[in-house]
Amino acid sequence: MKRTITLMTLAAPLLGATLLNSCALVAVSGAAVLISDEFMDNAISTVVPLEPELAWTGVLSSLSGQTTALIHRDDDHRTATTTVDGGEVTVHVEQFDLGQTRILVEAKKYLVHNPELSALTLQRIEQDLMDR
After folding, report:
1. Across the chain, where does the E strand assignment appear?
2. Under CATH, which architecture does the 38-131 domain have?
3. pTM of the model
4. 20 to 30 A from 110, CA-CA: which of 87, 118, 119, 129?
5. Contacts for 10 with CB less than 8 Å, ≥ 6 apart
């Protein structure tokens, strides 16, 4: 019995590592946002001439203006997920080049990728950033 428990204790982390092989797990105060290959393949992106910290602040401000739902955010990895126009939207902000930031937006509605909602959300974010 003790040998089985030890084996299970050792196998659990290995199983978890295998399942997350193609994904990066991003922790968010009690929740988790998963940035996966699927996100990267389906995200719409743009590059803005702002430092990442300014872009991240602007993205959060824009998202809060687009929804009344709770925004699940991870400030360390600059990732946020919320509901916009009935779909789940995930936004990721990353440094692209010196003084430039890439913003990626991926939306799903009814569990299906929705490029129209992604493009609309990104367009609103860009407009809000340029109006600042």
Report:
1. 23-28, 31-36, 44-48, 72-74, 79-84, 87-97, 100-109, 112-113
2. 2-Layer Sandwich (3.30)
3. 0.72
4. 129
5. none
